[in-house]
Each structure stands twice: as structure tokens, then as C-alpha cells.
Amino acid sequence: MLVKIGNRELDMGGPHLTELRDSSDIRDDFPALRARMKEDGYILIRGFHDREQVFRARSELLRDLAAKGKLDPSADPEEARLHPDNKGHFWAGTNEDKPELLKVLEGPEVMRFFGNFLGGEAMTYNYKWPRAVQNGQSTGAHYDIVYMGRGTPNLYTLWTPLGDTPIELGTLAVLLGSHRWTKVKETYGKLDVDRDRTEGWFSEDPMELIRKYGGQWATTSFNAGDAIFFGMFTMHASTVNVTPHIRISCDTRYQLASEPVDERWIGKKPKGHDAHGNVPLRSMGEARRQWGLG
Within 10 A of 195 (CB to CB), how many other CB atoms are there? Predict the structure, then answer.
């Protein structure tokens, strides 16, 4: 099976792309999960969320997409078939008007899980990142720390697909071993995209990273209820949506409530990223040359 990541097609099971490791068998063994995170840089758990609640959240967002004209009006909204205009959507903000979604992301079981994993009371950013991704779209390779590094680095991103999500619909992909790239962490990993007025994606070429730094990409198909979480220094991207359907997913962040928080993402009206206005952003190519990363 050929999988499209960025501008490349990689062979699943070949030298450059493999399946993500499933950690469902140690879901309740938190010392083992912490050791696995240190080893792999990510944790994949099947059935992490209640499947039926995920579908209720999905329907909530699909109704909104239909109202916004993002779905094919001739099809049932539940099919998530793209409008011929092929446009995605990003629900930026706290999404307090999406109660079914927030039940998935902030429910007591999820908060209890992260409290046990982190070893104390957990909190989640008020700002959430639900996205509807159109055909032909994907996310470039990056560390999350460059977007939310003003608080504790002991912060985790949970990627939740809202619905059954095969690889061809666009799934999260992790570059194995990237959380141990010392030079990249000490240069790119210290970037603040707002402060430094710099592009955030480290690369849009998955093979370039393997050639320069080694490792192997890993992804998998997800069912509704499955989720994956990872640390701030895990290089990740997404596979390209090559289907006529819209992919709905959400990124959510969790940390210890006792540790410093990035102020851009909390409160009733989080400010989010600073407005760049007309100030041109430094390209990642230029930044990488300055860091000696080429």
C-alpha cells in the first residue's frame, strides 16, 4: 500500500514507513506508559474514547459543516462528502458551543487518565484545535513546542480522529526517534513562531528528514474512539487526504495544573497566536541555514 505524506508516496511496510505501535495492552499501567513514551515519543491507545460519544461529537460538527456549505448538499451530511468547492474548516477557539465535542475532550475519564499519567491534577487548554481537512491537504512535519512553548515543556498533544479514519483519509504520522534529535531540539525546538516571526513547519518532505537524521515514519488507520498522544518534541505530520470525504479530527493539550501554562491558549477568550500583520515571516529554510541544519 502506497501512502502519501507531503510530496512523497511511501510504501507501508517498506524501509521508510511502518505501523504505529499499539499500547492498548498497557493502558492502565501508568509506569509502563511513561516508559513507553520515553522510548517511542508517542502512545497509541485503541478505544481511548467512548466510541458512541465520538460519533455524537462528529454529528455535531458535521451539522455545522453542512450549515457552512462545506459538504455536498446532495448527500447525507453523515457521509461527510466534500462540497465540490473542496474547502476545509478550522473551529478556532474554546468551542463552548460544541458540548458533545467537549465531552470527548474534557470528560472525567480523559482527565483522570492524564492525571494518572502525569502524576498529579491534570488540566487541558481551553483552546481546542478541531479541524475538517479537505482532499489533497496534509500537515507538514513539525514539533508542537514551537507553537506552545511558553509554559511547561511537559505538555502532551492528544490527536483524536472524530470518526473511522483510514490512512487515505489523512491520519497522524510520527517520525520514530525524532524526540531524541539533540541538535534539532536545541535549535528548531527553541523556536517560538510568534516571538521569532518564523514559519512553523520544519519540513514538507518526509524523505529529507530520514536522509538527514534517520528514523522511519509510522502511521495507522484509526477507528472512532482511538487516539494517540505525544510530547512536544516528537516530529509528526499527517498523511494526505486522497478521498472525496472530509476528515474531522481534534488536537487537544494536557499538562499538570501545577506547572506553568502558555497564556496564549487559556481563559475564556484565549488570544492564540499573535497577529503577524504585514510583517513577513522568516522562512524555515533560512532559519535552518542559520541553525546549521541546512
Answer: 10
